[in-house]
Amino acid sequence: MPLIVEETDPREPQATALLKASHALMQALFSPEENHFLSIDALRGNDVHFYTASAGDTLIATGALALRGTDAAPYGEVKSMFTAENARGKGAAAAILRAIEDQARALNLPVLNLETGDKLNAAHRLYGRQGFKICGPFGDYDAMPTSIFMTKCLMDTPAAV
Q1: Considering the domain boundaries, does residue 75 fall inside one?
Q2: How many CB atoms lie within 10 A of CB 57?
Q3: Whole domain around residue 72: which residue ranges?
Q4: pLDDT reading at 160 higher than 70
Q5: 157: exposed, middle or buried (C-beta count within 10 Å: 0-12, 13-18, 19+)?
Q6: How many domains does the chain have?
Q7: Does any domain span residue 160?
Q8: Is the pLDDT of residue 148 over 90?
Q9: What is the pLDDT of residues 86-95, one digit of tens each?
Q10: For 82, which DSSP code?
Q11: Residue 11 — very low, low, confident or very high, per pLDDT cuts 50/70/90?
Q12: How buried is 111 (Cβ within 10 angstroms: 0-12 exposed, 13-18 middle, 19+ buried)?
């Protein structure tokens, strides 16, 4: 069954269920000060593009592009990447990440950044396969032992973040 990736309202019931499962997992793995996920309301903001991947009538993965930085140094941040447990390893997360990158390029963002947890090894592998490299903290993030920061240049000349 082909995957369909599209921009979605995070209040859509299946999307909300996936986000709640993601938030529960993050809360089980990390302390409150180590969690940086966006609320469902924040994912509806004008500065966020929220995506889902579906197989048939079932949503199986989520991800978002948050617009960050300043006019002089804009960047995109990958947020809310999550795949339902029974759908992992089937390419849904990679498909969403491609949609996020395509949108970032369409918006002429020079770079994509992300923060992920140190215990999320499958995510690290996915981001590495998609060309992300380890970097230092960006934006409002502080260095934390449980955070891994990654970046991907989308233009010929990287922008400062």
Answers
A1: yes
A2: 6
A3: 3-153
A4: no
A5: exposed
A6: 1
A7: no
A8: yes
A9: 999 999 999 9
A10: E
A11: very high
A12: buried
